[in-house]
């Protein structure tokens, strides 16, 4: 007697994939609507724009004998500004992504639906990155155009620096959004998640560089300065972002050799430096998914 087997349904996998994509898009759209209505995010976007415009006014001031494109000056200044503001905005977006759902009692409903935890996080991630992208494009886009026309226009290639800054800022923000999910999924109170987010920002943006500076002062010609420091500099996504943008612009035209020194001191150069924030984002998403699996509906 021939056994009767059940042949796989060829339409099952596509249907399941469609359900996953629908769940991701629905969650992302919800987060975009919530993010755009969030007053903290609107305020952060305005701060980003105001600081950028202030830097435009400073950068468009006379530079003496140094002939520097106004857009180049602004991009260099915004690169330093982004290291502080973009991670902060990203953490403000993500610190209550999970803890806030627990506080409001809505996480149980989300986890009870036929949507995996990874799908929930990916949908939130796409939505939050979209909101951050809107803020960065508006703030830096307007600032770049103002600097371009304030400098007399003409050199359209200078806008490539602005586009590169916007793209790398979005990558940096996406990294800290994913890192914020780890803090949000690890606690059950929004206040605790906010405190963790501030601690992450303080360590990554301020204390980490101070520790590296202390190591350089203690070992100027030792193993730390020659071997460990370059890798530790690239390891930090904020420092990697700054290195990438400072090395990409013409640092010599700024009357400074900072970009050249940074480029020669690091083991990676060019676009390869941005491997660090991308790798951190992927690792943080994986870790936050693992932590979220410990939460019971």
Helix content: over 70%
Order of helices and strands: HHHHHHHHHHHH
Overall mean pLDDT score? 81
**General shape:** globular
State the low-pLDDT regions, or none.
1-8, 62-66, 251-263
> What is the rounded distance between the termini?
47 Å
**Which percent range describes the beta-strand content?**
under 5%
Transmembrane segments: 40-58, 70-95, 125-150, 162-183, 195-218, 271-292
Keywords: Membrane, Transmembrane, Transmembrane helix
Organism: Hoeflea algicola
Protein name: ABC transporter permease
Description of the structure:
The chain is mainly α and 297 residues long. The chain has one domain (15-292). Helices cover 76% and strands 0% of the residues. The protein has 12 helices and no strands. The chain has helices spanning 12-37, 39-59, 70-94, 99-104, 107-112, 117-150, 158-186, 190-218, 223-235, 237-248, 258-265, 275-292. Helix 6 (117-150) packs antiparallel against helix 12 and helix 8 packs antiparallel against helix 9. It is globular. The termini are far apart. Residues 1-8, 62-66 and 251-263 have low confidence and may be disordered.
Any chance you could write out the topology, listing elements then pairs?
Layout: H1 12-37, H2 39-59, H3 70-94, H4 99-104, H5 107-112, H6 117-150, H7 158-186, H8 190-218, H9 223-235, H10 237-248, H11 258-265, H12 275-292
Helix pairs in contact: 1-6, 2-3, 2-6, 3-6, 3-7, 3-8, 3-10, 6-7, 6-12, 7-8, 7-10, 7-12, 8-9, 10-11, 10-12
